[in-house]
Specification:
This protein is α/β, with parallel strands linked by helices. It has helices at 2-40, 46-59, 66-80, 94-100, 116-128, 143-146, 150-154, 173-185, 205-216; strands spanning 84-88, 108-113, 136-140, 166-169, 194-199, 222-227, 231-236. It comes from Solea senegalensis.
């Protein structure tokens, strides 16, 4: 019994150390990326901000989706023309800036970041790129905690809203399915159509297996619209006739 107890304690310790390392490394990565972009880009110039991120990523480890996946994201934003976008996983704001620059004048981005310091750094970069708080909101929270509160963030003055027509998930692959289900449960996915982009960081099919298996057994409201090694697009529509 005591050896089993010891094993459990040791597993917990390993997990705690791994979590701390992820937190510290993540913080360092965000601070370095932010410092480089902030000091090297032309403030107020979106293209310069994105170019500076890409320049940084040429020589350093970077959490930003980068130009290749960024172009896939751009194509989806141009096709969907969303008025409300939800991003899970802000980091330093690279993908937020990519999305914001393509939104219509009335479009809004809500972006969620778990780590408070990273959220502040990301928000600053979005402002440096020239966007205003009327166009975006950074929420510091875990996706699971924030989703049930999003109705009030979307349309504070109204009881109901159309929900998000684009969701970008680039936070934690293990959260993709629970968060998708929570968004559906809360009726936060636009019923007339919502594209959900899943960023497959490790480009491993098994990382997305759970969510794709779920989607494929529900053809009444989901379909897989695009499947690339680094990004998968799921399309949600409540009314099957439109699929
Ligand atoms: C890969 S980075 C996002 C990169 C960003 N999309 C870009 O292209 O610049 C993932 C971010 O998600 C955050 N994150 C991880 N799990 C999360 C969760 N459950 N809820 C919200 N944010 C989370 C991490 O702190 C990290 O900053």
């Amino acid at each position: 019994v005591s050896s089993r107890y010891g094993d459990k304690v040791s597993t917990l310790c390993h997990r705690a150390v791994a979590w701390l390392l992820r937190l510290v490394r993540g913080g360092v990565c965000a601070r370095r990326t932010h410092a480089f972009v902030f000091s090297s880009c032309t403030h107020g110039n979106v293209h310069s901000v994105l170019e500076t991120f890409d320049l940084y990523a040429d020589t350093h480890a970077s959490a930003a989706i980068g130009p290749e996946t960024g172009e896939v994201l751009d194509d989806v934003v141009k096709r969907v023309r969303p008025s409300r976008v939800l991003e899970l996983g802000t980091h330093c704001g690279y993908s937020s800036v990519r999305v914001l620059r393509l939104l219509p004048p009335a479009g809004r981005l809500v972006t969620v970041e778990l780590d408070p310091l990273t959220a502040d750094l990301g928000e600053e970069i979005i402002l440096v790129a020239g966007f205003k708080h009327a166009q975006f909101q950074v929420l510091t929270s875990s996706s699971a905690e924030v989703i049930p509160t999003l109705h009030s963030v979307l349309e504070p003055a109204q009881k109901s809203s159309d929900g998000f027509s684009l969701v970008l998930m680039d936070h934690d692959a293990q959260q993709f399915l629970p968060d998708l289900l929570a968004l559906e449960e809360e009726e936060l996915l636009c019923s007339s159509g919502c594209s959900v982009l899943l960023i497959n960081r490790r480009q491993r099919a098994e990382d997305l297996r759970e969510i794709l298996d779920h989607v494929r057994v529900r053809p009444d409201c989901f379909c897989v619209k695009m499947e690339r090694p680094c990004v998968v697009e799921i399309f949600y529509q409540k009314d099957k006739a439109g699929l």
